[in-house]
Design brief:
375 residues; alpha/beta; Spore Coat Polysaccharide Biosynthesis Protein SpsA, Chain A; seven-stranded mixed β-sheet; 13 helices
Length: 375
Protein backbone atom coordinates (compact mmCIF):
# COMPACT_ATOMS: atom_id res chain seq x y z
CA UNK A 1 0.00 0.00 0.00
CA UNK A 2 2.79 2.43 0.96
CA UNK A 3 4.76 1.55 -2.18
CA UNK A 4 1.69 2.10 -4.36
CA UNK A 5 1.04 5.49 -2.78
CA UNK A 6 4.66 6.52 -3.29
CA UNK A 7 4.40 5.42 -6.92
CA UNK A 8 1.36 7.63 -7.49
CA UNK A 9 3.07 10.54 -5.75
CA UNK A 10 6.12 10.24 -7.99
CA UNK A 11 3.88 10.13 -11.07
CA UNK A 12 2.06 13.21 -9.79
CA UNK A 13 5.39 15.05 -9.66
CA UNK A 14 6.08 13.91 -13.22
CA UNK A 15 2.69 15.22 -14.36
CA UNK A 16 3.37 18.53 -12.63
CA UNK A 17 6.63 18.62 -14.55
CA UNK A 18 4.72 18.02 -17.77
CA UNK A 19 2.52 20.99 -16.92
CA UNK A 20 5.59 23.14 -16.32
CA UNK A 21 7.15 21.99 -19.62
CA UNK A 22 4.01 22.96 -21.54
CA UNK A 23 3.89 26.35 -19.78
CA UNK A 24 7.58 26.95 -20.56
CA UNK A 25 6.99 26.12 -24.23
CA UNK A 26 4.15 28.66 -24.29
CA UNK A 27 6.17 31.36 -22.48
CA UNK A 28 9.40 31.10 -24.48
CA UNK A 29 8.36 32.69 -27.81
CA UNK A 30 6.35 35.40 -26.07
CA UNK A 31 9.34 36.49 -24.00
CA UNK A 32 11.50 36.88 -27.09
CA UNK A 33 8.92 38.85 -29.09
CA UNK A 34 10.52 41.53 -31.24
CA UNK A 35 11.48 44.66 -29.32
CA UNK A 36 12.67 48.07 -30.49
CA UNK A 37 16.41 48.66 -30.81
CA UNK A 38 18.39 51.90 -31.16
CA UNK A 39 21.81 51.34 -32.75
CA UNK A 40 24.71 53.77 -32.99
CA UNK A 41 25.08 54.53 -29.29
CA UNK A 42 28.09 56.60 -28.16
CA UNK A 43 28.67 55.75 -24.49
CA UNK A 44 32.23 54.94 -23.42
CA UNK A 45 32.28 51.31 -22.24
CA UNK A 46 34.83 49.06 -20.56
CA UNK A 47 34.38 45.35 -21.27
CA UNK A 48 35.84 43.27 -18.40
CA UNK A 49 37.14 39.81 -19.32
CA UNK A 50 38.72 37.70 -16.55
CA UNK A 51 40.64 34.95 -18.39
CA UNK A 52 42.10 31.61 -17.38
CA UNK A 53 43.58 29.17 -19.88
CA UNK A 54 43.31 28.70 -23.63
CA UNK A 55 39.66 27.87 -24.23
CA UNK A 56 38.56 26.79 -27.71
CA UNK A 57 37.81 29.79 -29.96
CA UNK A 58 38.83 32.22 -27.20
CA UNK A 59 40.19 34.90 -29.56
CA UNK A 60 37.05 34.60 -31.71
CA UNK A 61 34.79 34.95 -28.69
CA UNK A 62 36.67 38.01 -27.46
CA UNK A 63 36.56 39.54 -30.95
CA UNK A 64 32.77 39.31 -30.98
CA UNK A 65 32.67 41.91 -28.17
CA UNK A 66 34.57 44.37 -30.36
CA UNK A 67 32.54 43.70 -33.51
CA UNK A 68 29.69 45.89 -32.31
CA UNK A 69 27.29 48.41 -33.84
CA UNK A 70 28.54 50.94 -31.31
CA UNK A 71 30.01 54.37 -32.07
CA UNK A 72 31.47 55.17 -28.66
CA UNK A 73 34.89 54.23 -27.22
CA UNK A 74 35.33 50.60 -26.15
CA UNK A 75 38.06 49.31 -23.86
CA UNK A 76 38.45 45.53 -23.83
CA UNK A 77 40.15 44.91 -20.48
CA UNK A 78 41.45 41.37 -20.06
CA UNK A 79 43.07 39.94 -16.96
CA UNK A 80 45.11 36.86 -16.09
CA UNK A 81 46.87 35.81 -12.91
CA UNK A 82 49.95 34.15 -14.37
CA UNK A 83 52.54 35.42 -16.83
CA UNK A 84 52.52 32.02 -18.54
CA UNK A 85 48.72 31.77 -18.90
CA UNK A 86 47.94 30.47 -22.42
CA UNK A 87 45.07 32.98 -22.68
CA UNK A 88 47.69 35.70 -23.21
CA UNK A 89 48.41 34.31 -26.68
CA UNK A 90 44.75 34.79 -27.65
CA UNK A 91 44.84 38.39 -26.44
CA UNK A 92 48.03 39.09 -28.39
CA UNK A 93 46.55 37.49 -31.51
CA UNK A 94 43.50 39.72 -31.16
CA UNK A 95 45.69 42.79 -30.79
CA UNK A 96 47.48 41.89 -34.03
CA UNK A 97 44.19 41.30 -35.84
CA UNK A 98 42.57 44.52 -34.53
CA UNK A 99 45.41 47.04 -34.09
CA UNK A 100 43.02 50.02 -33.88
CA UNK A 101 41.05 48.55 -30.96
CA UNK A 102 41.91 49.33 -27.35
CA UNK A 103 42.75 45.95 -25.85
CA UNK A 104 44.42 46.14 -22.42
CA UNK A 105 45.88 43.20 -20.54
CA UNK A 106 46.49 43.00 -16.79
CA UNK A 107 48.84 40.28 -15.51
CA UNK A 108 48.66 40.20 -11.70
CA UNK A 109 48.91 37.18 -9.40
CA UNK A 110 47.73 39.00 -6.26
CA UNK A 111 45.16 36.97 -4.34
CA UNK A 112 42.38 38.66 -2.38
CA UNK A 113 40.39 35.69 -1.09
CA UNK A 114 39.26 32.20 -2.00
CA UNK A 115 37.80 33.09 -5.40
CA UNK A 116 40.46 33.29 -8.09
CA UNK A 117 38.04 34.88 -10.55
CA UNK A 118 37.12 37.66 -8.14
CA UNK A 119 40.79 38.25 -7.33
CA UNK A 120 41.36 38.66 -11.06
CA UNK A 121 38.48 41.17 -11.24
CA UNK A 122 39.84 43.15 -8.29
CA UNK A 123 43.25 43.36 -9.97
CA UNK A 124 41.64 44.45 -13.24
CA UNK A 125 39.31 47.02 -11.68
CA UNK A 126 42.13 49.49 -11.10
CA UNK A 127 42.53 49.78 -14.88
CA UNK A 128 38.89 50.45 -15.81
CA UNK A 129 38.89 53.48 -18.12
CA UNK A 130 35.21 54.19 -18.78
CA UNK A 131 32.08 54.91 -16.66
CA UNK A 132 30.03 51.97 -17.94
CA UNK A 133 31.33 48.50 -17.13
CA UNK A 134 30.16 45.33 -18.86
CA UNK A 135 31.70 42.16 -17.42
CA UNK A 136 31.25 38.68 -18.83
CA UNK A 137 32.81 35.26 -18.61
CA UNK A 138 35.55 34.30 -21.04
CA UNK A 139 33.43 31.61 -22.72
CA UNK A 140 30.72 34.00 -23.96
CA UNK A 141 30.22 35.15 -27.57
CA UNK A 142 27.79 37.86 -28.67
CA UNK A 143 26.08 39.34 -31.74
CA UNK A 144 26.85 42.81 -33.18
CA UNK A 145 23.76 44.35 -31.53
CA UNK A 146 24.79 43.12 -28.07
CA UNK A 147 26.00 46.41 -26.62
CA UNK A 148 23.07 48.37 -28.05
CA UNK A 149 20.58 46.01 -26.39
CA UNK A 150 22.43 45.91 -23.07
CA UNK A 151 22.83 49.69 -22.89
CA UNK A 152 19.20 50.18 -23.88
CA UNK A 153 18.13 48.00 -20.95
CA UNK A 154 20.52 49.81 -18.60
CA UNK A 155 18.87 53.13 -19.58
CA UNK A 156 15.52 52.13 -18.12
CA UNK A 157 14.46 53.95 -14.94
CA UNK A 158 15.23 51.99 -11.79
CA UNK A 159 17.66 49.59 -13.47
CA UNK A 160 20.97 49.14 -11.68
CA UNK A 161 22.39 46.26 -13.71
CA UNK A 162 21.69 44.20 -16.81
CA UNK A 163 22.25 40.49 -17.26
CA UNK A 164 21.67 38.20 -20.25
CA UNK A 165 20.21 34.77 -20.85
CA UNK A 166 22.26 32.35 -22.92
CA UNK A 167 22.16 29.26 -25.09
CA UNK A 168 24.80 26.53 -25.29
CA UNK A 169 27.33 25.86 -28.04
CA UNK A 170 29.71 22.92 -27.69
CA UNK A 171 33.24 23.82 -28.80
CA UNK A 172 35.26 20.87 -27.50
CA UNK A 173 33.74 17.71 -28.94
CA UNK A 174 30.82 15.45 -28.13
CA UNK A 175 30.72 15.95 -24.35
CA UNK A 176 30.78 19.73 -24.72
CA UNK A 177 27.82 19.53 -27.11
CA UNK A 178 26.05 17.26 -24.62
CA UNK A 179 26.69 19.88 -21.95
CA UNK A 180 25.41 22.63 -24.24
CA UNK A 181 22.11 20.75 -24.55
CA UNK A 182 21.61 21.19 -20.82
CA UNK A 183 22.06 24.94 -21.14
CA UNK A 184 19.78 25.30 -24.16
CA UNK A 185 17.02 22.84 -23.31
CA UNK A 186 16.92 22.93 -19.52
CA UNK A 187 18.51 26.11 -18.14
CA UNK A 188 17.22 28.53 -20.80
CA UNK A 189 13.50 27.61 -20.69
CA UNK A 190 13.59 27.58 -16.90
CA UNK A 191 15.28 30.96 -16.67
CA UNK A 192 12.87 32.51 -19.18
CA UNK A 193 9.90 31.07 -17.31
CA UNK A 194 11.19 32.41 -13.99
CA UNK A 195 11.90 35.89 -15.35
CA UNK A 196 8.60 36.13 -17.25
CA UNK A 197 6.62 35.03 -14.19
CA UNK A 198 8.53 37.18 -11.73
CA UNK A 199 9.76 34.13 -9.83
CA UNK A 200 13.38 35.22 -9.63
CA UNK A 201 15.88 37.94 -10.36
CA UNK A 202 18.82 36.14 -11.96
CA UNK A 203 22.16 37.85 -12.40
CA UNK A 204 24.47 35.73 -14.52
CA UNK A 205 28.14 35.69 -15.48
CA UNK A 206 27.14 35.73 -19.13
CA UNK A 207 26.76 39.51 -18.73
CA UNK A 208 26.63 41.93 -15.84
CA UNK A 209 26.51 45.56 -16.97
CA UNK A 210 26.44 48.49 -14.57
CA UNK A 211 27.94 51.90 -14.06
CA UNK A 212 31.14 52.44 -12.14
CA UNK A 213 29.05 54.36 -9.62
CA UNK A 214 26.89 51.30 -8.97
CA UNK A 215 29.96 49.09 -8.70
CA UNK A 216 31.37 51.38 -6.02
CA UNK A 217 27.99 51.52 -4.23
CA UNK A 218 27.93 47.74 -3.79
CA UNK A 219 31.44 47.76 -2.33
CA UNK A 220 33.38 46.97 -5.49
CA UNK A 221 34.64 43.51 -6.35
CA UNK A 222 36.48 43.45 -3.01
CA UNK A 223 33.16 42.68 -1.28
CA UNK A 224 33.00 39.38 -3.22
CA UNK A 225 36.49 38.06 -2.48
CA UNK A 226 35.26 34.85 -0.80
CA UNK A 227 32.09 34.35 -2.83
CA UNK A 228 31.80 31.55 -5.40
CA UNK A 229 28.50 32.78 -6.87
CA UNK A 230 29.84 36.29 -7.50
CA UNK A 231 27.23 36.95 -10.20
CA UNK A 232 24.35 36.12 -7.85
CA UNK A 233 25.94 38.22 -5.08
CA UNK A 234 26.21 41.22 -7.40
CA UNK A 235 22.52 40.88 -8.26
CA UNK A 236 21.57 40.75 -4.60
CA UNK A 237 23.74 43.77 -3.80
CA UNK A 238 22.17 45.77 -6.63
CA UNK A 239 18.69 44.80 -5.40
CA UNK A 240 19.67 45.93 -1.89
CA UNK A 241 20.21 49.40 -3.38
CA UNK A 242 16.56 49.36 -4.47
CA UNK A 243 17.52 48.85 -8.12
CA UNK A 244 16.46 46.22 -10.65
CA UNK A 245 18.57 43.69 -12.52
CA UNK A 246 17.05 43.83 -16.01
CA UNK A 247 16.95 40.79 -18.30
CA UNK A 248 16.34 41.98 -21.89
CA UNK A 249 14.77 39.64 -24.47
CA UNK A 250 18.06 38.65 -26.10
CA UNK A 251 20.50 35.75 -26.03
CA UNK A 252 24.25 35.44 -25.87
CA UNK A 253 26.18 32.24 -26.55
CA UNK A 254 27.90 30.11 -23.93
CA UNK A 255 30.79 28.34 -25.66
CA UNK A 256 30.67 25.12 -23.64
CA UNK A 257 34.15 23.57 -23.53
CA UNK A 258 33.97 20.52 -21.25
CA UNK A 259 35.83 17.96 -23.36
CA UNK A 260 35.31 14.91 -21.14
CA UNK A 261 32.56 13.34 -19.06
CA UNK A 262 34.55 14.06 -15.89
CA UNK A 263 35.01 17.73 -16.75
CA UNK A 264 31.32 18.10 -17.55
CA UNK A 265 30.29 16.37 -14.32
CA UNK A 266 32.56 18.57 -12.19
CA UNK A 267 31.38 21.73 -13.95
CA UNK A 268 27.67 20.99 -13.58
CA UNK A 269 28.10 19.71 -10.02
CA UNK A 270 29.82 22.96 -9.07
CA UNK A 271 27.07 24.97 -10.71
CA UNK A 272 24.32 22.93 -9.04
CA UNK A 273 25.93 23.01 -5.60
CA UNK A 274 26.42 26.77 -5.90
CA UNK A 275 22.78 27.41 -6.79
CA UNK A 276 21.68 25.09 -3.98
CA UNK A 277 23.80 27.06 -1.53
CA UNK A 278 22.37 30.48 -2.42
CA UNK A 279 18.72 29.62 -3.18
CA UNK A 280 18.06 26.18 -1.64
CA UNK A 281 14.25 26.20 -1.84
CA UNK A 282 14.16 27.33 -5.46
CA UNK A 283 16.82 24.78 -6.37
CA UNK A 284 14.86 21.95 -4.77
CA UNK A 285 11.75 22.98 -6.70
CA UNK A 286 13.71 23.07 -9.95
CA UNK A 287 13.57 19.27 -10.05
CA UNK A 288 10.07 19.66 -11.46
CA UNK A 289 11.72 20.68 -14.74
CA UNK A 290 12.94 17.07 -15.06
CA UNK A 291 9.74 15.02 -15.25
CA UNK A 292 11.25 12.06 -17.13
CA UNK A 293 13.17 10.52 -14.19
CA UNK A 294 10.06 10.75 -12.00
CA UNK A 295 7.97 9.14 -14.73
CA UNK A 296 10.45 6.28 -15.05
CA UNK A 297 10.51 5.78 -11.28
CA UNK A 298 6.70 5.67 -11.20
CA UNK A 299 6.71 3.06 -13.96
CA UNK A 300 8.40 0.60 -11.59
CA UNK A 301 5.29 0.57 -9.40
CA UNK A 302 2.55 1.44 -11.90
CA UNK A 303 3.78 0.28 -15.33
CA UNK A 304 0.77 1.22 -17.48
CA UNK A 305 0.22 4.66 -15.98
CA UNK A 306 3.95 5.26 -15.80
CA UNK A 307 4.55 4.49 -19.46
CA UNK A 308 1.75 6.87 -20.43
CA UNK A 309 3.33 9.64 -18.35
CA UNK A 310 6.77 8.89 -19.83
CA UNK A 311 5.36 9.12 -23.37
CA UNK A 312 3.73 12.47 -22.53
CA UNK A 313 6.99 13.70 -21.00
CA UNK A 314 9.01 12.80 -24.09
CA UNK A 315 6.52 14.50 -26.40
CA UNK A 316 6.45 17.72 -24.37
CA UNK A 317 10.22 17.84 -23.99
CA UNK A 318 10.56 17.48 -27.77
CA UNK A 319 8.05 20.31 -28.22
CA UNK A 320 10.00 22.57 -25.87
CA UNK A 321 13.32 21.71 -27.52
CA UNK A 322 11.86 22.57 -30.91
CA UNK A 323 10.79 25.99 -29.63
CA UNK A 324 14.28 26.60 -28.25
CA UNK A 325 15.89 25.60 -31.55
CA UNK A 326 13.75 28.04 -33.51
CA UNK A 327 14.41 30.95 -31.15
CA UNK A 328 18.06 30.34 -30.28
CA UNK A 329 19.27 28.80 -33.53
CA UNK A 330 20.45 25.71 -31.70
CA UNK A 331 20.47 22.23 -33.11
CA UNK A 332 20.47 19.27 -30.76
CA UNK A 333 19.40 15.67 -31.17
CA UNK A 334 15.93 14.98 -29.78
CA UNK A 335 17.02 11.36 -29.36
CA UNK A 336 19.61 12.49 -26.81
CA UNK A 337 17.16 14.52 -24.73
CA UNK A 338 16.17 11.61 -22.45
CA UNK A 339 19.82 10.83 -21.73
CA UNK A 340 20.53 14.52 -21.13
CA UNK A 341 17.60 14.77 -18.69
CA UNK A 342 18.76 11.68 -16.78
CA UNK A 343 22.27 13.13 -16.54
CA UNK A 344 20.85 16.41 -15.23
CA UNK A 345 18.85 14.53 -12.61
CA UNK A 346 21.97 12.66 -11.48
CA UNK A 347 23.81 15.99 -11.12
CA UNK A 348 20.85 17.40 -9.20
CA UNK A 349 20.85 14.52 -6.69
CA UNK A 350 24.63 14.63 -6.25
CA UNK A 351 24.60 18.41 -5.77
CA UNK A 352 22.28 18.06 -2.77
CA UNK A 353 25.13 16.36 -0.91
CA UNK A 354 28.16 18.21 -2.31
CA UNK A 355 30.09 20.17 0.28
CA UNK A 356 33.14 21.02 -1.79
CA UNK A 357 33.67 21.86 -5.46
CA UNK A 358 36.54 22.17 -7.90
CA UNK A 359 37.04 25.52 -9.59
CA UNK A 360 39.84 25.86 -12.14
CA UNK A 361 42.09 23.39 -10.35
CA UNK A 362 41.35 24.66 -6.83
CA UNK A 363 39.37 22.69 -4.26
CA UNK A 364 36.89 24.98 -2.51
CA UNK A 365 34.81 24.20 0.58
CA UNK A 366 31.21 25.42 0.49
CA UNK A 367 30.35 27.75 3.36
CA UNK A 368 27.08 29.37 4.45
CA UNK A 369 25.47 31.91 2.12
CA UNK A 370 27.35 30.82 -0.99
CA UNK A 371 30.76 31.74 0.38
CA UNK A 372 33.77 29.46 -0.03
CA UNK A 373 37.14 28.82 1.53
CA UNK A 374 40.19 27.32 -0.12
CA UNK A 375 41.28 23.92 1.15
Amino acid sequence: MVLSTLGWMVLAVALAGCGYTLAAAWTLPRFFATSSLALGRREAVTLLKPLHGAEPRLAENLASFLDQAHEGPIQLLCGVQRADDPAIAAVEALRSHLPAARIDLVVDDTLHGASGKVANLINMSRHIAHPIVVMSDSDIAVAPDYLARVLGALDRPGVGAVSCLYRGRGDAGWWSRFGAMGLSYQFLPGAVFGVARGLGRPCMGSTIAFTGETLRAIGGFEALADVLADDYAIGEAVAALGLEVAIPPMLVTHASDDATLGALWRHELRWGATVRAVVPAAYALSAIALPLPFGLLGTIVHPAAGLAVVALTLALRALLAGRVDRIAGTRGSVLLLPLRDLFSFAVFVASLFARSVEWRGRALTMEAGGRVSAK
